[in-house]
Amino acid sequence: MADARTLLRVTDLGKTYATAGRTVEAIRSISFDVAVGELVCIVGPSGCGKTTLLKCLSGLLAPSAGSVSLDGQPVTDPPEKMAVVFQEYGRSLYPWLTVEDNVALPLKARKVPRAERDELVRAALEEVGLAHATTTYPWQLSGGMQQRVAIARAIAYRPEVLVMDEPFAAVDAQTRADLEDLVRRVWRDLGVTVLFVTHDIDESVYLGERVLVLSSSPTVVQEDLRVDLPDDRDQISTRALPRFTELRTHVHEQIQRAKRDEHSEAVEPHAPAAHT
Amino acid sequence: MTALARSLVPTLRTVGLAAGLPVLLVLGWGLATQGSQSFYFPGPATVARTFVDTWFGPAFVQDVLPSLGRFGAGVALSIVIGIVAGTAIGTTPWLRELLEPMLEFFRAVPPVALVPVLMLLLGIGDSMKLAVIVSGCVWPVLLNTVEGVRGVDPVLTETSRSYRVHGALALRYVILPAASPRIMAGIRLCLSIGLILMVISEMFAASSGLGYRLVYFQRSFMIAEMWSGIVLLGLIGVVVATIFGFVDRRVLHWYHGLREVARG
Lengths: 276, 264
Fold this sequence. Notes:
A: alpha/beta, B: 264 residues, MetI-like fold
């Protein structure tokens, strides 16, 4: 990926929830750029606002401060060039539609002609290894296969950015390994830019070309780490590399530090955060 | 036990359980009225004979068909109004806030109490009878549709938003299917209320229909005929429930499948 054109730009993004009587600052200030064709993992301690960040990125939630832009265009609504894979695969697939209709619906909304739509759906389901399951219903499939359907739906949409919110948090370890390799393959085959949110440190290092480590809430980017592992990754040999261990240890320490900072901050009197 | 017997036993069991109680009840009825000369409680054989004589003939065209027509039209109208209005109210927050107290008020008014008013407004023709049926049947469909439309899983709503599935497409493929289990529950209620209101609406100022005929038989002391009319109403109820069950299994096959999987 020689092209270093910035595709996604997040500038001083902040999100404060106003609930009855008090405000909760979920994200203080996050800034980062993602270049075309990158595979970036976002990792952070639990409760650090990963999902909030992702909803702001995908135009599902309006940020309280700062901005998100995709290809130079400010994101205010879900952008056409972005596809999202949610963590709750069981709830994000339409149970009344067959697998192929689930994949086809976003294309229908985009008014892709029938023949082209069928071809995109077929190719996407083949890519995720579900060519045989087109007419079954999602609830007839295992969790891992359901998440493959959600990935196929995202692929068929031909997005420029594929955003995934802890997509494998709820599947078993073996399925998870297969799905991780699937994401790597999709990224390389389609040349799509991938933003992968996870709480799993190993997963972030194994998958990413770059790892953004978030701090505890109120969240900032704690570290922007380049993963210099070989391009061709393998569940056994890559995870056995000394460099892999170094990187995961490094990220792990960063996250431990993030948690410590949170605790030390908790004893200090809270002052309202002022944005610059 | 042979293989044939083993496969036959469950079938016999199912049939026996479904038909057993009706058979027993009719037998009990027969025994209780055996040798009795009660004018008001004729035996099953008398009622069965009267049933054939009364309803297989001109009465079928004069009374049964008009009744079924009113029931069908009233229920169909209620379902259409209920789903259309319910979807509009459920998807428009300000409309819901505006209408909800009013809806509770009108729902609480018994439709039977409206009969004299509707008679004044609409006369004594079919439109009055239709209005009585709709005034009672529309509520379960409407209120269930509102709840169903509002209750779409937020993850599914966000998925649809992120893939830019809007408007008519979202209505057709997301909102209405998601609400369909609730809507079908509303329709089930609508059907049973509709049958009751059909009979009641025909008891006032009517010249045809099952309700009219029942009152006529009662006032003429044609007791066996009256009982046969009540049996006919019960049978219509069974047929309507069977048809509903068939449609429900087709429309909600995904829902029943999903629940079966969830139950494991």
